[in-house]
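[Help] Beginner question about ligand-bound structures

Sorry if this is basic. My supervisor gave me a protein sequence and a SMILES string for S-adenosylmethionine and asked me to "get the holo structure". I don't really know what that means in practice or what format the answer should be in. Inputs are pasted below exactly as I got them.
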Amino acid sequence: MEHTPEVQKQYFQFAYQTGSDIWSHLPYRFRAEAMLPDLPKDSLVLDVGSGRGLWAAKLVGLGYRVLGIDYIEEVVKKANDRIRDEGYQDRARFLVADVLDIPFVDAGFDLVTDVGTLQHLTHDLWDDYVREVARVLKPGGYMLKVSLSRKTTRFLGWNPGASSDGEFTKFGVHYHFFTEAEVDHLFSDDFDIIEHQYETYNTQSDPGDAVTLLFTLIRKK
Ligand SMILES: C[S@@+](CC[C@H](N)C(=O)[O-])C[C@H]1O[C@@H](n2cnc3c(N)ncnc32)[C@H](O)[C@@H]1O
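Answer (accepted):
No worries, everyone starts somewhere. Holo just means with the ligand present. The predicted complex, written as structure tokens, is below.
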């Protein structure tokens, strides 16, 4: 099936409806937490592509205030229900929105986090994505980005490590496996790269699959 933005959105919607969203259960949150910058309590964080809101809940537990955006209405509702059930509704809220058109004012956030969203945007949209993220961040604000890495050697029947461009499509969904150099280049105008780290996880996508994620902490100039 060919990739279109509509087919991809339907895929995410279906995955959340059926519980086949295996990404929600990858144990990336420990590494991501360890890489967070030292920010004052109550700092405001935007999580783009917030999914079920599990990472946002972790950030709330660390003392931050969090807004999450995702373009799948049902999962935004689930994330809001969950945060309300946990009694944190005054610390986190989820909204339906597109990461390419973030519905917030300029320079409002201390930190933006993205776990697994940029990798699903096609190359032609990357500059728009960076512009939006940079726009909503305060000067000196941070971004923690977690993406599929080109160091992955087996995932969904692919070997991204042997691929020259890291581009794949399955069920109409676009996947990009990043190199450090691509991330450095993409963010070079507006951000300073602080560090890259990697972690590999076995996944349930296919027996023997293991996905390597690239964690990058960057700071807006
Ligand atoms: C791989 S999932 C990761 C979800 C979550 N961050 C996590 O780690 O569990 C990617 C998420 O990005 C959302 N997404 C993809 N494209 C988006 C867009 N253009 N605007 C907003 N959300 C988007 C999807 O609905 C999905 O929830």
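A couple of things worth pointing out: The CA atoms of residues 148 and 213 lie 5 Å apart. The longest strand covers residues 137-148. Feel free to follow up in the thread.
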